[in-house]
């Protein structure tokens, strides 16, 4: 009697570095693409219980867009851990203060909620401006079109 074996990709997976420009991109659609790359779901050797993903660098996080009334109505909460320590701020306020945290929060919510998800999150680097310190890794530029009909 033969038993099916779980597929294991090779241990020496080639890790790529990608640069994604978040300027004029929709937040949610951009975050799903980033989470897919971090997880490795875009590769043929994807295995759910292993890290087969690549590294992602996001630039121009301060220029990411949301639709509708979300700039004034979308809330971000954090808690200090002390009684009464809940802090709340809107998307527009957080974008002015720490624009990197918006993309990090969106992508983190799309990763697995376990040890592997925390490990995958460390492969994400988000920067508010157009520059990043990862030139030595020779990252490839990845074009993501989150706005339908924008490539006319």
Oligomeric form: single chain
Shape: globular
Please report the distance between the alpha carbons of the first and last residues. 58 Å
CATH topology of the domain at 17-66 and 99-142: Ribosomal Protein L13p, Chain: A
Question: What's a concise summary of this model?
Answer:
This protein is an alpha/beta fold and 152 residues long.
Key words describing this protein structure:
152 residues, alpha/beta, Ribosomal Protein L13p, Chain: A, globular
Structure description:
This protein is one of the early assembly proteins of the 50S ribosomal subunit, although it is not seen to bind rRNA by itself. It is important during the early stages of 50S assembly. This is Large ribosomal subunit protein uL13. Belongs to the universal ribosomal protein uL13 family. It holds the Pfam family Ribosomal_L13. There is one protein chain. With 152 residues, this protein is an alpha/beta fold. The protein has a domain at 17-66 and 99-142: Alpha-Beta Complex (Ribosomal Protein L13p, Chain: A), CATH 3.90.1180.10. 27% of the residues lie in helices and 17% in strands. The chain has five helices and six strands. The protein has helices spanning 27-39, 70-73, 91-97, 99-108, 115-121, and strands at 17-21, 55-59, 75-79, 86-90, 124-126, 140-142. Strands 5-2-1-6 form a four-stranded parallel sheet, with helices on one face. A hairpin with a 6-residue loop joins strand 3 and strand 4 (86-90). Helix 1 packs across helix 4 and helix 3 packs across helix 4 (99-108).
């Amino acid at each position: 009697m033969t038993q099916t074996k779980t597929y294991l990709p090779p241990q020496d997976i080639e890790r790529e570095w990608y640069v994604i420009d978040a300027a004029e991109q929709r937040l949610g659609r951009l975050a799903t693409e980033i989470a897919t790359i971090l997880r490795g779901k875009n590769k043929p050797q994807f295995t759910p219980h292993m890290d087969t993903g690549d590294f992602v660098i996001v630039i121009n996080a301060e220029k990411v867009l949301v639709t509708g009334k979300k700039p004034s109505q979308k809330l971000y909460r954090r808690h200090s851990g002390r009684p009464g320590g809940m802090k709340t701020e809107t998307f527009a306020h957080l974008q002015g203060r720490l624009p990197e945290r918006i993309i990090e929060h969106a992508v983190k919510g799309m990763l697995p909620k376990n040890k592997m998800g925390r490990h995958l999150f460390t492969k994400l680097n988000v920067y508010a401006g157009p520059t990043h310190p990862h030139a030595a890794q020779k990252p490839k530029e990845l074009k993501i079109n989150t706005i339908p009909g924008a490539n006319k």
